[in-house]
Amino acid sequence: MTSNFFNLLELLVKAGVDFIIVGGFAGVVYGCTYITQDIDICCDFSVDNLLLLQKALSNVHPVHRMTGNRQQLELTKENCSQYKNLYLDTDSGQLDCLSFIDGLGDYQKVKQASELIRVEDIQLRVLNLDALIKAKKAMNRPRDKEAILQLEAIKKLKKL
Asked: What is the pTM of this model?
């Protein structure tokens, strides 16, 4: 499977899905060289937004990555409330949909700590640099330590 992260983001934006880019890909936006294997987004886990997400991804064949039999994503009004996170494989790459970000909080708090950026002809919401650093520190994973060092250096350079 090849990754076309921009395609995934474009599909979500065009469908009107309410989301914020977080994680490694957000770091890339600011110039972090850490390689990421997926896109992490924090999104509104309301029924309407999850159904929009499913519709947006329908042509890239989303399946649940964390299930043994890799079930196809089949959200309904009735089952949406059972999900807190969705870990998906698609034809365009891996997409992790999170309802909560450590160190920041739920979707509404994450949205408050984000900013709009323009990539080609679409606008994307991404965690601001301070919030991204805070989230990475809260996760406290070994793979985030290098990213934190780079992000803090980028923050210092931006002040110059």
From this structure: 0.92
